[in-house]
Amino acid sequence: MFAGDHDIEHAVLELExxxxxxxxxxxxxxYDYRWSWTADGADLFEAIDPERWARAGHNPRRLLTxxxxxxxxxxAADASFVxxxxxIAAELAADRARPWPAGDASPQHPVAFFSCEFGVHGSLPIxxxxxxxxxxxxxxxxxxxxLPMVGVGLMYRTGYFHQRIDVTGYQHEYxxxxxxxxxxxxxxxxxxxxxxxxxxxVDDEEVTAHIWRVDxxxxxxxxxxxxxxxxxxxxxxxxxxxxxxxxAIRLAQYAMLGVGGVRALRALGIEPxxxxxxxxxxxxxxxxxxxxxxxxxxxxxDEAWRRVREQVVFTTHTPVPAGNETYQRDEVLAMLGRxxxxxxxxxxxxxxxxxxxxxxxxxTGLTALALRVSRHANAVSRRHGQVARAxxxxxxxxxxxxxxxxxHVTNGVHVPTWLHGPMRELLDRHLGEGWLSRAxxxxxxxxxxxxxxxxxxxxxxxxxxxxxxxxxxxxTSDRLSRGDPLDYAEAxxxxxxxxRLTIGFARRLATYKRLHLVGLLPERALALIGGxxxxxxxxxxxxxxxxxxxxxxxxxxxxxxxxxxVAGRAAFLExxxxxxxxxLVAGCDVWVNVPRPPNEASGTSGMKSCLGGGLQxxxxxxxxxxxxxGSNGWAINGDVDADTSAQDLRDARALFDLLEHEVLPMFHxxxxxxxxxxxxxxxxxxxxxxxxxxSATRMLRDYADQVYRRxxxxx
Length: 715
Prior knowledge:
- The strands form four sheets. Strands 1, 2, 5, 6, 7, 8, 9, 10, 13 and 14 form a ten-stranded mixed β-sheet that branches. This protein has a six-stranded parallel β-sheet with strand order 17-16-15-18-19-20, with helices on both faces.
- Helices cover 46% and strands 13% of the residues.
- The chain has three domains: 5-97, no CATH class; 111-157 and 214-411 and 701-713, Glycogen Phosphorylase B (Rossmann fold), CATH 3.40.50.2000; 415-434 and 441-693, Glycogen Phosphorylase B (Rossmann fold, 3-Layer(aba) Sandwich), CATH 3.40.50.2000.
- It is built from 32 helices and 20 strands.
- Helix 10 crosses helix 11 (285-294).
- It is an alpha/beta fold.
C-alpha cells in the first residue's frame, strides 16, 4: 500500500527466522509500534526477559535479537504466553486489514505530515518535547481512525541530548548513537533492491539522503538520513542532532526536511492530497512544490504559487521567539543559495520569509514563510489563536487583528498511549467495549458518573503507589551516580510515602515555564514539605544546552536540597523522556503548570495527567484557559503583566495559597471509609469535562473536518 512495504516484510521474515516457531508472530508485532499502545503490548515483550527489555531501551527488535536462546525457548514453551502472542498478533493484523474510509485523503493521495521531531516511543529517540509528542500522537490517532497519512522527518543519528545533573544541580549533556540498524525500521529500497536516494543542494554540496521507514500502526513514518559515506562530514552531520546548536546546520536540517522531504515523497511515488507543516521547520519544502508546479505546461508564477497554497496547511505551535527563528540574508544564502537559484530569484526567495517583503534589511523566518504560502493556518489553543493573530498581524497589512487568517485547533493527546495502569483498567471496565474509538464523545465518558467513589480513589492510590516505587528507585540511582552523600541518596526510599499528596512539575525547562516559582518562596515550600500533613514534590525536565538561564533555575532549586525534609520528600529525576513522562502523569495527584502568560501555546502534559485522574493547578494560559470551569481543578490568573518580577511573585503566592488552603485540606478531608469525597468529585468532573475535549480523537477529527478538506479551509 505504501512505499517500503516489501522492505518491512523482508525484515519481518529475517527476524522470524531467528525465533522459535511459537514466537514468530512477534516479529511482525516488533516492526509495528502499534504494540506500544495496545493495553498489554509492552508487558508481553517484558515477560520474555525483563532485564534485557530494560537494557534494550524497550526496543522490541533489540530484545528479540539480543535475548539468550534459552530465555526465548522458555517463553516459547509457555502455552499461556504463546496464546498472548497470537492474540496480540491477530489484533494488529485485524487493525491493518480494516478498510480505508472514503474521504478527501486516500492511500493514493494521503495527508503528508511534516515535523522536525516525532515522539512515537522512547525507543525511537527522534524527539525533544511537546512538539514531537504531539506529532507522534497525530500519527497514532491517524492510524486508529484509518485516516490515510504519512509522516516525514529526519533520522537523527544521536537524537536529542541525554541529561545528567551534578551535585550542584548543573545540567550536563551527552549524546548516544541511536543506530537505526538496531531499531524497528527499514531502509526503503527501489525495484532494483538499492536504497532510494534523494539529494538536496546545501552550501556547495549535493547532500544525499537515504530514507528509513518506521511503522506507527497503519501510518508509515519516512525519515531522511544523511549519514552516508558519499557526503562530506558537514553533510553527514545534518541528521546527527535534533536542534543542533550551530545555526547553519539547523538551516541545512530544515532544507533536508522540507525540500528533501518533498523530493523523498516524489521518489517513493507518493502524491499527497495535502502537506501539513507542523511548525515552520519544514517550510522550505514549499519551494520544491513551486518548482514542481512550474514544470507543468502553461503554469506561470502566479498560478504556480496558487497551486502550492492549495496543497499546504500550517500549524504554529509557539509565540516564543526561539520557536520562530529568523536568519539574516548572508546566513540564508550561504547555506541555501543554490536552492534559491533553483527557484529562480534569490530576492524573491528571501522576501517570502520576511514580514515586510520589500524591506531588504529584514531577517527571513520560516514561520512567516509558512503563514504566507499556506491555504490554512492554525494555532493550537483558543488563546494561542488570539495571541498568534496579534503577533502575526503585520504579515497581513490592512487587516484588523481579528481578521488575521489564523484559526485554532486545540491540541489533544492520544488516549491509549497516555492512559494506562489502574485508571485504564477501571475505565475499560466501565466505559464499554471499544470506548477508545469514541473518546471524543461526552457520552462515552458519562458512565464515570456511576463509578463508585471508593473505586476511583483506589485507582488513584494504586497509581500513586506505583509512581512512588519508581521515584524511590530512580531518585536514589540518580543521586548515587552523581556522587551525593549516602544518606541523601537513600532518603527517597524511606521518605517518599505512597499515601502522601504527590505534586508533579515536569516539562521542557524553558524559563517561561517558570519552575523557579516553586522555589521563589522557599519558606512556604519547606513548610509544605515538613508540615503536619506533608506533601511530596517530583520534578523533571531538560533545559536546552544553550539556555543557561534555564539551567540556572535547576541550580537554584538544588540549593534547597539539604534543607530539613527535602531529601526524602522532593526529587528531581534526570533525563526526562517519554517513559518517565508516562509514569509521572499517571501517578501524580496534582499537576502544576505555571507558564508566564501568554507564552503557553497549548501544553499537553496536563491533558495526560487528567486521563490518570490527576488534578490540574495551572495558570489560565494555553489549553487550561478553555478547560477550567471552576470545578475541575484550580487556576491562577492568566493576565499579562509587563512587570514580570512582580507577576512571578504574585503567581508564586497564588500557587502556595491554593496548595495550602484548598488542595491540601481537600486531599485530607476523608469520610468514614477514608475516601476524600470532594477530591474524588473533582477527579470525576475533570475526567468528564477534559477527557473528550482534549483527546487526539477530537483533535484529528477537527483537522480532517476544518483543515484538510479544501472547501472548509481556504482563506
